Amino acid sequence: MKTIGIMEVGGFRVGHASYDEAGTGCTVILFDEPATAGISVQGGGPASRDTRILDPLMGADSIHAILLSGGSAFGLDAAGGVMRFLESRGIGFPVAGSVVPLVCQSSLFDLCVGDPDIRPDAALGEAACRSASYAPPAEGNVGAGTGCSVGKLVGMDRAMKSGFGTYAFDCGGLRVGALVAVNAIGDVYDGAKRIAGVRDPLGRTTEDLFLEPLSAANADQGANTTIGVLVTNAALSKAQLAKAAAMAHDGLARAIRPVHTLLDGDSVYCASTGRFPTYVNSVGILASIAMERAIVRAVRASKTAYGLPGLGDR
User: Fold this and answer.
1) What tens digit of pLDDT does each residue of 191-209 get?
2) Is 2 exposed, middle or buried (0-12, 13-18, 19+ CB in 10 A)?
């Protein structure tokens, strides 16, 4: 198993667009060909658009793009710009002399930084598409990671900056990569070492504080979400990709503590862009490791912004 660049997985482009002063943005993954995909949602407060079509019981066999954005549920407007961009290029599901692009989206809550009245919209979604390329995507305070933060249980004045990160592996020709925007209520760990999260004067972790009822009661409901996309060249079905996405949540659990609470909306997609023959367990194992490393990269690449200290300045 060797580390590769995320774009070496192949079959897609990545584009970022941000409203930097407002503290929000979006990241789009545009597939070269319609991609089979699945999703696993483990958090209790997701904001999403058209993810139901990824259910193996639904008729759609593939999708054209996945969008990650800030703005909470307001940010779901950004997918309209992605659809408009694809439609103008004749990309979509043919219907009645036209096309309907299939775009799945998940949003995270970043209204607590910057200007909460400015959110990702159709114009920003379209701008992300126009910027999409095969070049290695920027990490840290960009795209969906622009307004991300971690360690927010007892308030933003104790939180830290997070952002967008990637990581990928090649294992004997099987390629699996992760792209993730980290906006967790929990702390982030690199192995056993806590590298970001709540800044507590007594040195307590978010897990410690969760066990103190008064601290936990102050948390904003659903104001956190880690959202990510796994890409692989493996030839898997929708059901198998959903299973691989579920296994990738093990990576979230290793890197973020606590995770999958009712205050998070953690959602992970897994999309196939190739025809490499393999087993779902192999993809899921690589996916969990890639997701863990991408989360750590997202935090380490993020710079101080919006009053939140970041590791990227060091």
Assistant:
1) 999 999 999 999 999 999 9
2) exposed
